[in-house]
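Section 3.1 - Work completed
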Amino acid sequence: MDRNRRDFLKGAGLVAAIAATGGLTVQHAEAAPAKTGQRGMARGLILLTMRRNGEYRLGVKTEKGILDVSQAAKQLHMHAPATMDELLQNEDGPSLNALVGAAIKSRAASKAFVKEAAIEYGPAVTRPEKIICVGLNYRRHAKEVGMEFPGQPVLFNKYNNALNNHNGSIKLPVAVARKFDYEVELVIVIGKEAKNVSEAHALSHVAGYCTGNDFTARDLQLETPSKQWMIGKTPDQFAPLGPYLVTADQIDPDNLKIECRVNGETRQSSNTNDLIFNCSQIVSFISRYITLKPGDIIFTGTPEGVIAGHPTEKQVWLKPGDKVACSLEKLGELKFGLV
C-alpha cells in the first residue's frame, strides 16, 4: 500500500493489520481517533497475554476483571496496542494507559472485562527479538554447585520456540535426555532501546518484570562431549513466562522473594538481593555488546536449590506428571506441568 493511501485510511480510522504469531492471528480493533504519536512505557499496570478467538490479545488485570484491550478499543473508538508485542515494540504505553482509564470509567466498555478464571494464557511476551539468559548469578547457588563467582555476567540464549505460558505444559524430550531440572528466575522485559547505557540509567529502559523458568536438560547441558548448553536450554517449551508482566514503576527488582515448588514441595526459596549482578548491572553489561530492543527479555539467573546442586545420590530428576509452580513477590505465580 502506498504511503498516501495508508495515511488516508489511518485518518479515517479504518486501519486493520493482521499478523501471524505462533500460528495465531492478531487483528487491530478499529482506531478512532488515531494514535497521537506519544511514545513511552505503560505505567501502573499488570499486563498479560491471553488467547481469545484464535488469536493472542493484550489483557490488563483490573479490579473489574481482565480487560480485553482490543475489544475495549473497538467499543470506545480509541487507539490501543492489540498485543503485548505491539505495546512493547511500538512503545505505545500512553495509548494503553489512556484506554484503561477510559474503560474503567465507561459503561460502554463493560463487555470488554472478562473473568480471569475463564481466560487461556499465552506467554507474557510472544515475539521477543532476543531471549538472553544469565548463568550462575546467585551467590548461594554458585556455592552449592562449587563454582567461583564470575567476574562478569555469564550469558547464553534461548529461542522463541522455547516460550511457554502459565498453566501450560512441557513435553519432555525423553528420547534424548533424562535429567530435567527447574530454574525459577526473575525476567526483565526491555521497553526502550538500550545501547551502551550506564548502570545508573539502565533500569529506565525496562518496561516491566515477569516470573520465568529457565527449564533445563542437565545431561544435554553438561554431560555431552562438548557440553551443549544451547540444546540443554532451548528445546521446545523450555521457557515458561508469566502469568503477568508488571510494569517497572511498581517493582524494586533487586529485593523480591523468589520460590519454586515441585508437587507442592518448596525446592527453591531465596531473594533477588542475593544476585551477584543486579538488574541494572545486567542491562548495562549486555548493552555494551548487544543492542537491546523493546520486547527483548532477559532471564537473570536462578537461586540455590536446583536438583543439579544436590549430591549425586540425592538427585531426583523431574519426570512426566510433575507439577511445577514458580513465584516472585508482586509478579504472580507461574504454573506448568510436565508430560
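Second construct:
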Amino acid sequence: MANTINSALIVDTVAELSLTSLSNRLAALRHFTSDFSADVKRPKDVVQVALSTAGSATLTNPTSFNTIGDSTLGASAVTLNHLYQPFGLSYADIQNGVKLEKILKINMDKLADSIWSAATAPITVANFGAATVTAADSAVTPGSAQLKALWAGVSKAGRKALIVNSGIYSQLIPTSTTSLALAEGAYGFEGGVYYASQFPSEAKLAGFACSAEAVAMAAAAPDLDSVGAQFLMREVVPVEGLGVNVYYNVWVDPTTRNLIGSMELMFGASKGITSGTIASVYNP
C-alpha cells in the first residue's frame, strides 16, 4: 500500500525552490559555453561542445558575394557524470506528519553546489596559468589596480563577467544610492558581477573574470525509463535562465515504506579556449 502525497503541492514547491536555489545560485554559469539537451545519456558519455575560435576575414570592396568565409568552429569534449541528490522520509517521519517539501530546499542547495563545483572544476592553474592578481579580498575594490587587471585580462572577450567570493563581492556592492549597481555592465563587465560561495577547483582561488569560451559545459537526461513505472511522481524542473533541466522523482520503498526522492541530471564540464579567457584572483 503506497503512501498518499499531495503531488500538486510538491510540484509547485519544487518549481518555486528551483528559482531561488538553482536559478539564483547558478546564474553565473550563463557566461560559459553550454550544450544542454533532453537527450538521454549514460555516465561517462562524451558530448562535443562547439566553440567558435576564429571568424572569417573581412573583405573590402568585394567583386563577388558567394563566399562563405573561413570561420573556425572547434569543439571541447565534455564527459558526463550522473549527479544524483537523494533525500527522503522514513515511515516514522511520515506518520509524524513530516512533509517531503520541508527538506527540499537544503537538498536543492546541495545539488546546486555540486553542479557549480563540476562546472568550475576546469578552472585551474594547469589549464589557465598562474594568477592574474594575487591579493587579499579587501584589496579588490572599485577603481583598484587589481580590479582593472582582472578586466584587462579578458578585455578582448565580447561579453565579460566577473565571478568572485563573498569577501571581494562585499567590496564591490553599492554603499549608497549613488554607488554603481552590480548589474550588467558594472565595472566594465558586460555580463555583470556575481557572487559564488566556493571555488573548490584550486586552493586560495578567490574569483575570476571570464569569457564564455573559457569553459564548455554539457547536460542531458539520465536514463529513467526502466524504473519510471515505480515513481509516484516524475517531473522535469527547468532551471530558469540557464536552459538546463533537473529531473525530480519520488517513490516508495515497499519493504520499509520510506518515501524516497531524488533530483538528478547528467552533467560535465571541460576547459575550452584557455588563452585570454580567464583572469583569476588568488588570495596570498
